[in-house]
Design goal:
Elements: E1 14-18, E2 21-26, E3 39-40, E4 49-51, E5 58-60, H1 63-88
Antiparallel strand pairs: 1-2, 2-3, 4-5
């Protein structure tokens, strides 16, 4: 297994397709106290911020990055729906 650089070990991604929507959760660390927190990518929106539950530090989300992530999430959900529909449209032998 490939070694993961230390600076990337704090991010854990969990993906689930439930109720026709993708759920991806990141677990980054607070920039100040380094406590891990959960971030649902659906809530990673332009102009929003996250407040650390441990120290109260407020981390602003990068607007352009948040827009890009939301577009990718939308595109991924649409592609997964297409895959599901392609199976449903096939005739059984």
């Amino acid at each position: 297994m490939q070694d993961i650089p230390e600076r990337h070990k704090e991010v854990l991604v969990i993906g689930i397709f439930k109720d026709r929507q993708v759920y991806i959760e990141l677990r980054p660390q607070c920039p100040k106290c380094k406590k891990e927190f959960m971030l649902d990518l659906k809530k990673f929106l332009p102009g929003r911020a996250h407040s650390c539950y441990a120290c109260g530090t407020i981390a602003q989300f990068d607007g352009q990055l948040a827009e890009r992530v939301q577009k990718l999430m939308h595109d991924l959900e649409a592609s997964i729906r297409e895959v599901n529909e392609s199976f449903l449209s096939q005739k059984a032998d």
